[in-house]
Amino acid sequence: MFTTVFIGALFLVLLLASWVANAYFLQLGGRWAKIGKMTFLRAFGAIAAAEVVCWILWALFSRIPNAGLARTVFAGIILLILTLALTWLVIALILRTSLWRAAWAWLPTLVPRAGYFLLVLLTVKPYLIEAFVIPTNSMAPTIIGRHWEAPCPRCGSPAYSSVEPDWSDYDSHNRPVLMICSREHRTCEVADPPRVELPGDRLLVNKLLAPRRWDVIVFKMPEGTQTDYCKRLVGLPGETVVIRDGAVWIDGRRLSPPESCAGLEYLAEIKDYPEKLWGSPSKPARLGPDEYFVLGDFSARAKDSRLWQQGAPGHPPYAIPADYIIGVVTHIYWPLSRCRVLR
Length: 343
Ligand SMILES: [Zn+2]
Hints:
There is one protein chain. By secondary structure, this protein is of the alpha+beta class. The strands form three sheets. Strands 1, 6, 7, 8, 13, 14, 15 and 16 form an eight-stranded antiparallel β-sheet that branches. Strands 2-3-4-5 form a four-stranded antiparallel β-sheet, with no helix packed on it. It has two domains: 2-132, no CATH class; 202-341, Umud Fragment, subunit A, CATH 2.10.109. It contains six helices and 16 strands. Zinc ion is lined by residues 152, 154-155, 157, 181, 183-184.
């Protein structure tokens, strides 16, 4: 609740500040382009309306399925052209002038836009809040990455699977796909789900919050890969983690997870995986004073602390050092149908 108010207030302040600055510069630009009756209020209305129209355009564009780099770049260029054209059109309509004069008047707003970009880049993103999109599906059904979706055969609620890269050959087409049900939080096998790749959730990560057990966190991979990952925090500094009977045991005591992840079954073994997993009863994970242990909710498909081979320098393979944690996931903000507060 607190983080929602904090993020909402921060967003509103930044938005209003940017509209005021842009309107001021549009007003200057309007005089420069010799547009008559150029008041601040009209400039503000034009800026706000243009922005809302662009949001609708972007929302429509985000529904286009991902289709390779070349098409994504092409779509990006089209989107940029449409954004500029729509912005100028809305300004021209509200200021009752020509498209050409509207574009001319708009030009000085590039100054506050650049300043705003720097402000977000240098303060908000590194210290307060950052947006992420998650590549994999290992946190389904809480957070879904690129995925396939089909009704759960038991209850009919949506179930999610990872996108299987090799599904197109005949054999894998006949194999049922392992999915996880969004209502029961349990896995199910779906005979032949639609092989349509759907986009992942977009997340807000708060960098001021101290991570607590069961929080979903984003962190740098201890192995040193560039991608940031997202998992659930289950083991805290100084604890010994064991996975048994589908549950997490800390220092010999079985934990009961919160309501939001009730029903999840954590696996101490993965089918066909040759090695013993970290955190399995015969290979407990002992955490040092600044180390954390994380698990994915889709335990059968998650590459989490259990499977890592190489740790951060000076740390065991399963441990995330405290300074590798980027922040706590507080919200899913996109797509709208998946909007929710996590903390
Ligand atoms: Zn179900």
